[in-house]
Each structure stands twice: as C-alpha cells, then as structure tokens.
Amino acid sequence: MNLFSFAFIFVGSIAFSLGFLHLLIFFRRRDLKVDLVFSLMALTISLSSFFEIWAFKADTLSSYIPLLKTTLGVQCLLWISFAWFVHFYTESERLWPPVVITMLYSLVQVINIFSPGSVLFSETVELESFAMGSGEILFFASGPANSFRILGDAAWIILLIYAAIACIGFGKRGNPRKAAIFGIAIFLCLGLGYLHGTLIDLGIADPPYLGSFLFLPLSLVISYSLAGDVVKSSRLAEEVKAAESRWRNLLENVHLLVIGIGRDKNVFYVNPFFLSVAGYKKSEILNHSFNNYLQEKDQGTMMARLETIFDGKTAVLPERRLPVVTKAGEQREIIWSNVLLSKGGGAAAGILSIGRDITDQTKAEAGRDLAIQDLEKLKVKLEIENISLREMIQIDHGFKEMIGESNGLLYVLGKVQQVAGTDSTVLILGETGTGKELVARAIHRESDRSDKPFVRVNCAAIPADLVESELFGHEAGAFTDAVTLRRGKFELAEGGTIFLDEVSEMPIAAQAKLLTVLQEKELERVGGAKAIQVNARVISATNRDLGSEVAAGRFRADLYYRLNVYPITLPPLRDRREDIPLLVTHFISVFNKKFGKNIDEISPVIMDTLQSYDWPGNIRELRNVLERAAITNTGTSLYLPDGLSQLKNTNGNNTHSTTETELLSLAEVERQHILRTLQKTNWQISGIKGAATILKINPSTLRSRIKKLGLKKS
C-alpha cells in the first residue's frame, strides 16, 4: 500500500473512530443531540475517504462512475449533517438555514443518482491518470460540467454564511472562546479546501482534492470540544446530584412543612415534619390531590389558582397564608413560601412549598387581641368613673410603692390587676428608670404565687459564658470551676416567679435553651442529662424594641412570641408630669427619715422646674436629684444644689431665662426667681408683702439663700 492510499485510509479510520465514540456517548446521554449529529458527520467523512481512494484506483469508466456517485452521495450527507451540527453546537435559534441546506443537498443527491456523469459532469469524456511522486497512479474523470452543479454550490455558500452567523451569535451569547476556536477551524479547513480545489480547476495545482484530509483536523477540534463539554456536563451532573442529596437531606430533617405539588395537582413529595404535624402516613398523601388537605372553602379557589399558575397566566405568590386540615380534623395555620419548579423549555413542572406552622402564635395573638379589647373597655370605664377608680386603686389596690394618679399609671395598674391572677407570661416594656421591677413585684404579690420566691435575674450583668449555668444550674464537674452541684435561678424560683430583667441582652444560645424551658416546662442542668420539671411564672422586661431586635437578628422571633403573651408598656415620666408632685413629696419623706432632715416646704418655682424637665432617666433620675438635694439642704425648705446638670423646659421656653433658647441649671433658675421677687418687693424680706411670704419660705431661710447665691441690692 502506497503512502497516499495509507493516508486516506488513516483519515477514514480516525474519523470512523471519532464517529463511533460519539455515537456511544449519545446512547449513554440521549439528551446530547449534538454528539449524534457529529457522529453522523464523522462517519460520512470516514466513508467519503474510503470511497474516494477506491475511486482514485478505478482505471475504467464503468467502475469509476459508480464509485464517484457513491462518494458524492456520501459527501452530500456529510454537508447535511455538518449543517445540523452547526445548528445544535452553536444553539442557533434559526431553523430554516439547515432545513434549506438539507433540501438543496437532497435535490443534488437525486440529480447525482440519475445523471450519467454524476452531479459534476453532464457526461464523461475520458478518464485521466495522474502519477504521484511516490509512483502511485490515480485516476480522475474529466468532462463538461453539469449545469445542476450550481445547486450544490449554492447550498455550500448558504452553509458557509450560516456557519459564520451562527458562530458570531454563539460568541455573543457568552461563549466567545468556543465560538472563536470553532469558527477559525471551520473557515481554515473549508477555506483551504475551496482554495485548493480552485487552484486545481485553474491548472495551477495538481490533483487530487484534499477535502477529506482537511476535515480531519476540524473533526479532531470538534471532538475535543464536545468531549470537554461531556466531561464538564458529567461533573455538573455529579455536583447537581450531590446538591440534590444535600437539599433532600435538609428537607427531610428541617422542622418546617415541605410539600411538592405537580401539574396534575397531586402531591409528589412530602417531608416527615409535614406528616408529623398533619398526622398522615406517607402513602396517604403521595399521589393524592392536594385538595384533600385543605378546608372546603379553600379547595375550589386553590385548584383554579394552581391551574392558572401552571398555564403561565398567573405568577406564583412567594408567600401566602393557607390553613391545612390534619387527619384528626384540626385546622393548622400555615404560612407558605412557594417556588415554581421548571422543566426543559421553561414550562412549569410543579410547585415546592415550605410552610411554617403559626397556629400557636395565632392563638396567642387572638388572646392578646381579646385582652386588648377588654383593656380598651376598661380604659373607657376608667375615664367615665375616674374619681372612684382613682380612690379604689390608690387606697385598696395595695400597690404602695407605685406613686401617682395619672391616667397612664392607672392604666398600667389596671393591666397588672388583670394579669396578676393568671399564670400567663408577661413582658414589661419601658424606658430605663420607669419602674419595671416594681411592676413585676406587684404582679407577683397580687398572684397566687405571692407566698413563693420572687427571683430577679439581671441578664445584662451575667457574662455570656455563664448565662446557662446561672439560669439552669450545673452539675459537679460540668466545667473547670464547677466543683459542686449548683441549682439555677429557675429551680430557685420553683412555684414562684422569675423576673428576667433586660432580657434583650441574653445571648442567642441561651435564648434557644430558654425557649425550650418555656415550651416544655423542663430543663437540663449544664453537664447533666436528666430533665427537671420546673414550675415558675416568667416575667421579663426590657427597655429595647424587641421587634427591631428580632428584625436585626439579635433576638429569636419564636422566643419573642413566647414572652410577648401579655405586654405591659410603662409610660415615661415626661408623659405623666402630674405625678411629679406626688413623687417629690414621697421621696422627700423617705429622705427626711433616712438623713434625719425636716424638709417640709417646696416652693412653686422648684416644683415648676422639676415638672418642666423631660427626665430622660425617668423616676430613677428624679430620685437621685432629690436625694442629693436632701443631703445638701440645711433648712426646712427644699432648694436644689449648685452644679446640677442643665434642665430643659419641654414647652421650648425657659420661663426664668433671659432668652428663649438658653438652658439654665436649677440653681440659676432659683437665683433669678428669688432676685426678681426681691426686686418686686424692693428687697423687703419679711412681713406680709415681703419676699419670704411670696416665696412661701421662712425669712431666715431666704436670707441664707441670698447670702449663698451672692445676691446684692443694686
């Protein structure tokens, strides 16, 4: 066998191997149509090579013409398969070019069969021989061109233009590297083949045509690219399978209801948590209509909506509330998050819904709303019978520590009386210094647990790593310093009340364990394995907005709902200014006893100043100011010491200041008021018309204050 013949057979063998390989790939992955078309293309290249070298060896017209027609027929199939390969490989949206090319080459095939000299020649004149440099003799036919050959040329030009446009579009759609390699390979191979054929026709180059040789590098490039795609696709398939396994494991173990609904409205997936909530067996739900688990009033509407969603007329709602009926007939309120599942072509395949059971929360909210309604009725009643209710609460309620008679305070006390007799969890809200602990103690004292312990826990003062030990206790040896067993606050409050002050400062990890204790009424000590039953009423308090803390991820939503069964909001002192005189009188009485003082007079200017201040520290700040004043006072009249922080008038005016915007200390306000009174009385201190009478203080006290303040008659 000569070198030239061997080269043709080698090309054919390589092409046949590539074609067979990609045919096997297609049989394994039926979705890879591009591999099927390439396999057909490679097999036709192989057959073309074999028939072409066979025809070159035929030394008579009778044997040459049938081999020529067979070779040209195989090449028509090659160009058809190549056109469809370009279509599938470049993911072209234009279908008509490969269809037109197929029709033209099919017509050329018919002409090739019935023309005496094939589609190339109208008739064969003679068979010419050509001696290769190696001594091998090849034979070629020559004669007048077939006029129908133009159909093949037109099809070839359309194919060339289509391949160029498809490659450009392929690159623009995010595949520039593959488009460039494929396009360059096509146009180098086809361009060189066309150029070589033209040179042979012009007599510049010697035959034979090298089309089959030029298709070999193109086939290798394409095969390498497709193989890379297959490998990448296999890796992606493995990753998808692994991801699917992870997601399925997550859905199987998550404490949320998960259900999949197909286009036929039947359930194709349900997770164990759904079964535990609804009380069904898996076989009772799978392949059954989703309608079976809905309220009767929702069934028609839901089926109609699913129909419009699957038809693409309505978008699926990302979240909606839809109750589910359990096997026992109980209605569970569920909030569903929905995702539309798609199949090939973008058509809807079904819906995956993940639901959160809010039945307990809904019941708690309903109870809270009823309580609010009752409180609103109570508020109206309080407003109508204000005097009698004030007397009842001030004298008979026993809340001796809670001083005041403002509507805001009476409203709080009314809520305390309502909830005290129950075991409901209470959340006390209010700014710092408003008396949240006093309210908590009042609830405990008025409850049936009043003879049991009241245990206060300042959550903000406990180190984060000791919160669980402090609340739930620990076993001996639970950690390094746990030498002996220690009972936690919950155990110490057994039968009574535990007050969780500043509960918003509790670490997230401890919040989860607290939620378990609230739900299960049992706890485990740190380092222990035994569940201990607990019976303690929980009252919590915070000066933060827990709703905002939940939104920021610093406080658990489920714990918030557990604590917020019965909220009580304490008004700040600036919203109950009418209580300030009573509070001042009470605190002065307390400090008189504590420090052995005899303060019994409070001038109007002092009281006005105290009532005008906003008191950001609320009652605690007022108490501290009065304690300092009591310590520094030497007489029977209350005066405010020098050096106190400046106090701002809430109405925007400082009654005793020289300008509307100037902020004065209490001492300066007192100084100016005394000075104006002295100027008005012409510095007469005692007597009926004296300044002491107007200021309602003892003349000797006024003289002492004049000296201390450095006032002099101008």
Describe the fold and architecture:
Mean pLDDT is 81; it is low at 387-398 and 648-662. Helix content is 54%, strand content 11%. The protein has 714 residues and is α/β, with parallel strands linked by helices. It folds into four domains: 3-232, Rhopdopsin 7-helix transmembrane proteins (Up-down Bundle); 253-357, PAS domain (Beta-Lactamase, 2-Layer Sandwich); 362-571, P-loop containing nucleotide triphosphate hydrolases (Rossmann fold), CATH 3.40.50; 576-709, Orthogonal Bundle (Helicase, Ruva Protein, domain 3), CATH 1.10.8. Helix 2 runs antiparallel to helix 7 (211-253), helix 10 crosses helix 12 and helix 19 packs across helix 21 (618-632).
Provide the fold topology:
Layout: H1 3-28, H2 33-57, H3 61-89, H4 96-114, E1 126-131, E2 137-142, H5 149-172, H6 176-201, H7 211-253, E3 257-262, E4 267-270, H8 272-278, H9 296-310, E5 319-321, E6 324-325, E7 331-332, E8 334-342, E9 348-357, H10 359-384, H11 386-396, H12 407-420, E10 426-429, H13 436-446, E11 454-458, H14 467-472, H15 489-492, E12 497-501, H16 508-520, E13 522-523, E14 532-533, E15 537-542, H17 546-551, H18 557-563, E16 566-569, H19 580-595, E17 601-602, H20 604-612, H21 618-632, E18 637-638, H22 666-680, H23 691-695, H24 699-709
Measured by DSSP, the beta-strand proportion falls in 5-15%
Radius of gyration: 48 Å
| Unreliable spans | 387-398, 648-662
Specify the biggest β-sheet.
5 strands, antiparallel
What name does CATH use for the topology of the largest domain? Rhopdopsin 7-helix transmembrane proteins
Our count of domains comes out at: 4
CATH architecture title of the largest domain:
Up-down Bundle
What's the overall average pLDDT, rounded? 81
- Output the structural class: alpha/beta
By DSSP, the count of extended strands is 18
Query: What is the global morphology?
Result: elongated
Q: Please give the CATH class of the largest domain.
A: Mainly Alpha
Major sheet: arrangement of strands: 4-3-9-8-5
> What's the total helix number?
24
State the distance separating the first and last CA atoms: 137 Å
Secondary structure: helix percent: 40-55%
